Amino acid sequence: MEEIKETVSGSGLEGHRAGFVNIVGNPNVGKSTLMNDLVGERISIITSKAQTTRHRIMGIVNTDEYQIVYSDTPGVLKPKYKLQESMLEFSEGALTDADILLYVTDVVEDAEKNKDFLDRVAKEKVPVLLVINKIDLLKGDGELEAIVARWHDRLPNAEIFPLSAKEHFNIDNLKRRIVELLPVSPPFFGKDALTDKPARFFVTEIIREKLLLNYDKEIPYSTEVLVEKFEEKDNSIHIMTVIYVERDSQKGIIIGKGGEKIKRVGIEARQDIEKFFGKKVFLELFVKVEKDWRNRESKLRAFGYIE
Q1: Cystine design at 59: which of 43, 69, 97, 99 (Cβ 3.0–4.6 Å)?
Q2: Residue 222, Cα to own-chain centre: how many angstroms?
Q3: pTM here?
């Protein structure tokens, strides 16, 4: 600790606080919505479907007094293929390097879902803030008190924050507590940093979001997006991307009759990419078959799921 204090003082940031606040929990409890609200920017994609988040995504909040490095992680699940194994590793890794852990649940989730992971959370030595999300869905008197009591029994050392990320209710109280718990430390990233991810990553995430929104069942989960060209000029960006699928039949579904479906995805994605970068975007989408890519380690490595 003395070394940290000297570093902070020597850098002109005496008393500066910084820390990693890792957000974990089961699928569909609102982790990404909470992350975006805490960061104040749309860092993580959001849909009503499970397994929307595949990577560990950092969003950074800076003031003169502190730096908070939030991490959104994939929902905890029992893996059925190698891609999901990598997703679980991102979630489990978030337990090992947190200064503050945000465990997110909601008002309908079973407290014993994915018990093994929750048991690890219960043993954490770092501060654990238990977020009970979606309280706007509650109707009856006494419902919230009963839910809080159940979670207090399950995670007795956690501080509990009932809130609604969607309605921005009680978020500010959570933020204040996070700042209070930050350790004294110099910043980990430059003070103008918003995320650890490159621009190309957010292009792929926006396109994946449109795939999740426009296709049903297994189709969006069988796709991966790779940016092959990102050519930025003063007022425009030319982007060429490939959407990978696992089977020939999926390629036909993605493209749609006369290319109608892929055209809709392209229009919706381009509009959001333009908002994200504040520039005119020329977006090209291609679809290729990469058989069984979700179970092939070489492909998972190429797509950034394995280091």
Answers
A1: 43
A2: 19
A3: 0.85
